[in-house]
Amino acid sequence: MADPEPQESTEPPRCANPDCQVAADGRCIEGFPDTAECPQFGRIPIMPVAAAPGAYPAPRNSVAMQASAALSVDEADVVVKDRPSRVIAIAGPQSAGKTSLIAGLYDLFQLGQVGNVAFAQSFSLHAFEQAAHDSRAASRRTTPNTARTERGEVRFYHLELVDTDSGAVPSVLLGDRAGEEYLETRSNPLSAQEFPELRRADVLTLLVDGERLLDAGQRHNLRSEIRQTLHAFVEAGVVRPTQRLALVLTKLDVIRKAADRDERTFQGFDTLVAGLRTDYGANFAAVESFQVAAQPSTDGAKRGENLDRLLAYWMAEPLRYCPAPMVFEVPEADRYFARLMPVPKSVQ
Amino acid sequence: MTNRSVVVMGLPGSGKTTFLAALWHLVSEKEVPCKLTYVSLQTGNIEHLHEIASQWRAAKKQERTAQGGDKLVSMILKAEGGDPQTVTFPDVAGEAFLQMWGLRECDKTVAGWLKEAGVLLFIHADKVTVPKWVIDEKLLMEDLGIPPEAETEKVVDWSPDVAPTQVQLVDLVQSMQTEPLDVGPRRLAIILSAWDKAAGRGLSPEEYLARRMPLLDQFLKHGLDPRWEKRIYGVSAQGGDYDDDKTTLPDAERLRDIDMPSQRVSVVHAGGASNDLTEPLQWLLT
Q1: Fewest C-beta atoms under 10 Å: which of A95, A147, A176, B232?
Q2: What ipTM was assigned to the predicted interfaces of this complex?
Q3: Other CB atoms within 10 Å distance of the CB of residue B250
């Protein structure tokens, strides 16, 4: 998500009047010989929206409102450039609970502040509501469910939040991508370079599926998947020293309900965290671990338990906003002229 | 004389038309003192006002405002010592606002009305759909010893209209401070209608909103354009339950027995109470 090179626009000319054909024939419908003089020229067309079948009776002449879906990479880029932001990549194998984590956090704001963080606004209310729906009573399900994220481009859920202690009002962008795609980086680490959310993240959040960690038949494979996925990210060069790493054990309620295996599971998670900290900690500015129940399916945990701690970690001032001091190196050159250095301000 | 407009917003059944009906009765009959007094009706639409006010006086439920039948009502009102002002209220069907939330589109005429600086946002205090979760209901059934039901085809797919009331309202106000409806600073008067139903809980309108709609409360405190001003009113424009076509209710009989219909009205704001429905309007127009 780097700044694009400035270049001459190649887009066809546009006009606010949707009946104007200036893009096709170059003629202004208002009759201005110089199209640039027309007050409608160059403005975004006001397009009547077509009626949606099976929905509300749409009027024939409507004005389009801002969308309310999850943001594309380009849309997220605009938010990052416009306002203070926190980009959160949420990675993990499929069914680890990525969408549940996003929906569970959103649902906590339905009930009030989360720790010292308050909701301000969101550009993705439809997307959040969709993600939360299958765990809500309005779905008329009898067991909570979360829709799986389909393969494809990463989408960002947007929240503008307020740290009521510091007064900071960052936009938090929560990246959501299909778990299979992250898992495939183990075989092809370079594919991680195609995931813009990883390189751009302020906090890389790696989810460890608590339910699989409970399962004696799956826990070894799960730990291996997590380790290899993180290794692939490091090998692909998408991890930066300004990033923080959050290792999150999900489905805490399920682990607690499994009375005979819970201690071993927590120890297994601690061992995994310790190993990852040793092997990859130097690649990150900080490594923290969390145990959460975003959308419990049992009475083993409170709704959104420990999400306040994780959110506080996400909300921390990104280190990309804290530039490191520049180091002057004496250039090695044969010619004296090329060895000239700027005079330090202290001796000017 | 100045021309001012107030836009009246709210989801279906939030009390917009009842408010207009009671307002027209109050300013035209002058039974109780009001901050704004009626000078004359601007043009047209008197039939609509007479019709809804007559239903209101008879303590009968209003017919729902049909979409496409949006009414533009203008009346000339005057504050004490002030100049007469032409105040225009579009009586827009709540479906137009559902459409903004659900389909992300807004009728061009309604969009024009939504650019006014004074906004009356209606919320029916007794009909707030709050989020509920499957797990809470499942655990409750287990506690009650009711066997779990199998997942059936009853499962409801997501659609925007199943979203909690507070989410739809956050989006509605957010839309008013975003292109294409952003017009800069505005005054927002939130009307918690049917306040008589909520008043028994002993909360102020602000406390009630914070307790019942925490997401909207957070948005109003932190997400509202800082150039906007807001006030929250508890308004009971009916005073109780009204008759529909088929049933006669004791509440409606009680209200019909009150000699001065204006006394059915109650407006609660900043610790005070009055019968003056023009209070929020006067604030929006100054």
Answers
A1: A147
A2: 0.90
A3: 9
